[in-house]
Amino acid sequence: MSHMNDVKPDLALYVEGESALVAGSPDAIAELFRKLDVPPESTAKVGTAVTDILAAAGGLLSMLGQEAVSGNSFQMTPASYAKYLELAGSTKEAFGIVSGVLRKPDGTIDTLVELVKSSPVSPAAGPNMAMLAAAVAIRSAIHNLEVQLESIDAKLDTVLRDTRNEALGNIQGTTYILDKAFGYFEETGELTPTLWDQVAGQAAALSQMLSVALNHIDGLADGLSAKSFGKRLEGARTAASGELQHWLIITAVALTNMVRMDSLEIIHGAKADPAGAHTRHVEQARERRLELTRSKVQKLADAAAKASKVDTLTRVANPFELPKLYDAVAEIQRLLMVFSEAYGMPATEAFERKEWHTSLLDLGHAAGSAVAGAVGAAAGTVAAAPKAIAGGVEDTILNVAQSIEERRKSAHSDDQITS
Predict the structure, then answer these.
(1) Which uninterrupted H or E stretch holds 37?
(2) C-alpha span between 54 and 22 (Å, rounded)
(3) 384 and 291 assigned to the same domain
(4) What distance in Å separates the CA atoms of residue 17 and residue 136, rounded to the nearest whole number?
(5) Would you say 117 and 5 are in contact if contact means Cβ atoms under 8 Å apart?
(6) Considering the domain boundaries, does residue 101 fall inside one?
(7) 31, 87, 278, 288: which could join 269 in a potential S-S bond, CB 3.0 to 4.6 Å?
(8) Residue 363: pLDDT band by 50, 70, 90 thresholds?
(9) 278 and 404, same domain (yes or no)
(10) Residue 49 sits in the same domain as residue 109
(11) CA–CA separation, 231 vs 291, rounded Å?
(12) Within a domain: 45
């Protein structure tokens, strides 16, 4: 890293892992995004107060009060973050305030972004740093929610209007209050007593929202854990047909709103809590909340993986229902994968589809081995008998299976025509 304290910085960044804020001229910000290959959809404008605080902290004092100063939040991809570390001249995570300067190397028309100084941010750094941390946390949470919704092709307004949410109270009202308070804070750097009272009044509603959603996810896991194949199939199809998607989105909305509330609470208490004790308490509560969520979702993931492991006889007896179970479990795992990536959960266990013919072969091998063992023991030729007898049993079962499958398909087609 070059230390060029005599050069005025063009950029100021506040970095928390792959989430960040940046202040500077629009051209400088655009160049940074180009160098880091930041996806345009992961960037958003931030309010005046947050922009000014970041600009001041990063040494852009000469730009304050000018129309040229701009502020953005942005979410880096892993590749973008690696490029950021390279620009920062570091191979390890660099949190806190970072300043950057733009310069043109001789012989080229390219513009380099060189990050020239970095300083960590502690909880005791004061309310201004708490504001930057809050802005990053909230922007990151909102971005994660948007990515989840896009990944599962869901519309938030449609989900929130669903009649299943009547027990949750006014989700849209809670979201609106928290969004309004955050917008006001980001623009002015303040939370009025009236706004804070409105925010604090949402705590019970948010806890209820998350609890109801997790209870529904728990119920879906119980349905997948039923003993009978028919009940498991019914539970899997219910979960995959929209029920799981709905409650995962409600869970994500609740967690996003709780990030908003936690961050605003930290800002509200920052002046009276210079040592950061309240901040640590809020962070511990958040970790407990996320751990509870992970445990409920992991229970469902385990139940889905187990539900797909059907014994051979059941597979043979349910040639048309088995693909339906596999399709439902695949959809459940797809939804859980999106959720897991957003909240740092382990990847779900993949399952193996087994076609009906494969199931019959498995049954043939099992039956052949049993018959061969009995015959071989009686004849005293245990070593020679299994392969020959098992092969004969397998051929017989496959011949019978083919005729059964043809009759089943014919009957199934007749049923569809008559229905």
Answers:
(1) none
(2) 7
(3) no
(4) 10
(5) yes
(6) yes
(7) 278
(8) very low
(9) no
(10) yes
(11) 29
(12) yes
Sign of CA dihedral 397, 400, 402, 404: negative
Amino acid making up residue 65: G
Specify the residue for token string 């979702």: 297
Distance (Å, rounded) from C-alpha 47 to C-alpha 131? 11
Please tell me which residue, 4 or 130, carries the higher pLDDT value: 130
Tokens encoding 107: 């012989």
Which residue is it, tokens 């928390």? 16
Q: Is the model's pLDDT at 254 over the cut of 50?
A: yes
Q: Which tokens sit at 85?
A: 């570390």
Confidence of residue 279 (pLDDT cuts 50, 70, 90): confident
Distance in angstroms (rounded) separating the CA atoms of residues 41 and 235: 37
Same domain as 305, residue 243: yes
Instruction: Tell me what percent of the chain is helix, strand and coil, each rounded to the nearest 5.
Output: 70, 10, 25
Give the position of tokens 């960037």.
Answer: 43
Query: 306: part of which helix (H) or strand (E)?
Result: helix 277-307
Q: What's the number of domains the chain is made of?
A: 3
Cβ pair 387, 369 in contact under 8 A? no
Mean pLDDT of the chain: 74
35: tokens are 């160098």
**At which of 82, 104, 121 does a domain end?**
121
Q: What is the pLDDT of residues 11-35, one digit of tens each?
A: 889 888 888 999 988 888 998 999 8
Residues 289 and 390 in one domain: no
**Domain assignment present for 2:** no
Same domain, 326 and 214: yes
Residues 269 and 284 in one domain: yes
Write down the pLDDT at residue 372. Answer: 34
Residues 187 and 270 in one domain: yes
- Supply the range of the domain harboring residue 91: 11-121
